[in-house]
Amino acid sequence: MISTGQLRAARALLRWTAQNLADASGVGVATIRRMEVLDGVPSGQIRSLSAIQSALEAAGIEFTGSAEDHPGVRLLTNTKQPRKMKDSRKS
């Protein structure tokens, strides 16, 4: 599982809003925001956290370490996925 710090850092690397991540993962924006205010491994449905992690990985994020041991993230530069999602509020 990923940590809340990794979740926040991954979203920042992609310059995604919570809404962008919600759209990409199918998880509600309120759930994402609730997870991000905690420390450690987010509480909640494992299915939701897995969907969030998969969406971030599909966008080019690599999670390093583990939630308990040297958690980190990095942006892969050779990904074929677009990094920044279109802001849904502008349409």
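Second entry:
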Amino acid sequence: MKNRLSIFSDRPALLILAVGLLIRAIASWLIPPGFDEAYYGVYAHHPAWGYFDHPPLVAVTAGFGFWLSGVYTFITLRLGALLLFVFSSLILYESIILLYNQRAARIGLMLLHTIPYFFIGMGAFVIPDNTLGLFWLLFIYSLIRLQRDDNPRWFLLSGTALGLALLSKYHAVFLVMGLGLLLLFNKNWRRYWRSPWLYGGAVLAFLIFLPNILWNASNDWISYVYQFSKGGSAGLHLSLDKFIQGIGVQAGYLLPWYFILLLIAGYRPWRSKQKHTLFLLPFVWLPVLVFTFIGATRTILPHWPMPGYLAAIILLAGWMDTWRPAISHRYLKFSAMFIGVLLMFVLLQTRLGIIDMDRKKDPTLNGFGWSELASHIQEKGYLADQRLFLFTHKWFLSGELDFALQGQREVTVLNRWHPQGFAFWSDMDSLLGRNALFVTSEFFPENAAKSYALYFDEITRLPDFYVQRNGKPGKTFYLWYCKNLKTPFPWPYGNK
């Protein structure tokens, strides 16, 4: 039996966690919420077992800091994400040390803290992958313990982790598929079909996930239909350009050199017949291959395959432990420097706009100016009308507006195709007869308000509101005052 070591007695590992937490906290404090983050912040004000877009745990992540402090700021929105990444790091460390040794576990921590998607995306910003990553790793840890101890009782932890992963993001079905492949085709795992603990774990997973099933059943299965039909239904049309683009964005999220090493590490146990790590391969390749090949038919979002790379990090850490220390240190040191420079550039661009680029293509402007807009709306006295509601024509803009107003007035989205969760949170009957403020920005058509002329008695253009960034062009907001919503807006689902 391997000597059991703890991260709490490993000073270098604790230093990695501490420095990483500090850097992520600074980024969380300085960078305004992106479109998705602000939208998930609205989730926290509408607790439910399901949402149009996702299962419920992202609401817990987004709401944790607010519920704890009663204050809604950039850092409280992201407090849950910051803390969850620490726990994910601990589980990764423990998993690697069980399979390999302490040095490999330290390398794994450094990998997790120098891969942009995991360190910044999963580690600092609010996304469903905050909890998915945690419970994905916990599921893998349970299987490592099961194999190491030859004790099927660990299936109870597997079931718990699976249920919570499903409540995080539906990508967790790949955990079910991966375990199914092991039980069907790996002779060392087929014997567990006879174990009652396997079925006990399955029951636990089902019971944990059941509230989301019931929520969907009472809402026309809307979340499942939406998520599993993403990408369109126009049939399969293979495209080499889309395939290459899908691979390219994965490499960008991971860093190209890590991308190549992670793929090689995911192949090595098969090539070398490393029996103690072969069982990890389904959890690497299922999400990576499925979404990569989907990317040959339609555009995919870069983060879809990312859970598979968590298991690959475990394998890469074990492989890098066999390298000459000078080589592995060089890789990790260069990657740490690169992500430090990258993060510094993002911070400077966000705060100062150091690069003069097409503002419509500058993602750092997505969350820019909304707080100033909220102050402007209040200063102009528009909020004096207690029955006033505000709306935009895009769900992600309504998320930013709602976050900026911090609940001072109801915010919704009037969009006949994609109102997302706002169609469930707002009651159309309660909006009738009320005045509204319509908000959009220069990044969208200036005549967007024309489409609402049939629904209000009168629509009046208000003065534009312009926000500079460091004395340079920033963002212009367009506003319209809409008098008396006289006709229900035709949402495609929700509270019509």
